[in-house]
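Bug #77: duplicate submission created two jobs. Keeping one. Sequence:
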Amino acid sequence: MTLSGEIRKLTQNMLEGHESRTAAVAGIRTSTAQELAEFHAAHQAQAAEQRERLSEYRDGLRRDTATFLSDAAGARQAMATQQREQRDEYRDGLRRDTATFLSDAAGARQAMATQQREQRDEYRDGLRRGTAALLKELDVAREAMATEQRGRLATERERLTSDVAAMRDRFQAEQSKVQADLSKARRVWSSFTGQMQQRRGRVGRPVAAPPPPPPPVKEAPPTEEAEAAADDLTVIRGIGTAMQHRLNEAGFYTYAQLVKATPKELRQALGEAGPRVTRVNVEEWIERARELLE
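Kept job's structure:
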């Protein structure tokens, strides 16, 4: 066989194969189109069926929801009614309990008030009795203390009187001794100056004698009542050492003298003490002196 014949045969085979393949592809396309049509139809039917089922489910759900809401409204109304009844019943019971409690509390408070009044009256009576007894004991103790103080003051006054007399005697003895020593010193000085003039053999200006000593200070003579016994006036409130000295200078030594004096006389006696005399309560001094004499 020649080359052209082989080529022609080969070409024919190729054409036949191409035609068979084309026919096969066409068959595939046809079957595929049919299958797609069938699938689309099945899909449409299934979608319609699902829409029907969903519509039925939705309608049933709506009916169930309406029924549930109706039942819930009825139950809520019944529950509200029951709660109102329970609330009214609880309120009535609470009112009754509150009334009972207030009644019991009023009774208890009245009983407690009565008991407290009795206890208060009893305590007040006991306090009065205790106060009366205490005041009586204080009066007794004050009387005993006043008696003891008067005894001590009398003893102290006697001791002071004795000490003052002894001091006056010692002062007078010392004064006499000083006068004797002074006279002796004058005689020695005169003898010494004469001897010095004789030794020098000339008469010079005489040596001046020592100046005479100042005259002894004489105490003001106390009154008869002051000589008897002088009281300690500083025990009276408002009288200090300086004020007692001024009162003594004015002639007031004892409580009795203060009691006998008038406030005007005391102020006149203290007139040199300055402006603070106007603030002195001399009436209180007189009352205190009268108490010390009792």
